[in-house]
Amino acid sequence: MNSQTTRRRTLRAAHYLTGARIGHRHVTRTRVIRSQLDQIAPGVHTVRTVPVWTDGTGSVQLTAYVVLLDALGLSLRADREAHRAAYGLLCRLLPGTDWSHPYAYDVATGVLVLDAPALPEELH
Questions:
Q1: Which of 8, 26, 104, 116 has its CA 20 to 30 A from that of 65?
Q2: Phi-psi region of 17 (alpha: psi -120 to 50; beta: other; left: phi over 0)
Q3: What CA–CA distance (Å, rounded) separates 25 from 16?
Q4: 78 vs 41: CA distance, rounded Å
Q5: Each residue's pLDDT tens digit in the chain (124 positions)?
Q6: pTM of the full structure
Q7: 26: which residues sit within 8 A by CB, 6+ positions away?
């Protein structure tokens, strides 16, 4: 076997191992977020965040409006502390996310998607 084929196989194997590590981290992070959100608000399926700019104290501040939804898409009954804790959890465990945009986090899959309004397909 020549050295170029061996090098190619080694690089390919390293690439696969890196992908496996990234996948394992995603699964672990999703499991942690799911279990902690279940402790915060049992039955949560989706966490939706909407940025809100407030001017209550004379300076503009960015805050977030958080909605906890169940599997049917209905809002869960939770107090303000539960909403704040869910938002804080997502901010800590998903670093690097620009929270000045609306997002929807699917608890089952661990996918955070931009939750911007879009036109229906019929209107395109």
A1: 26
A2: alpha
A3: 14
A4: 7
A5: 566 666 666 777 777 788 888 888 888 989 999 999 999 999 999 999 999 887 767 777 888 899 999 999 899 998 999 999 999 999 998 888 999 899 999 999 999 999 887 777 888 7
A6: 0.77
A7: 110
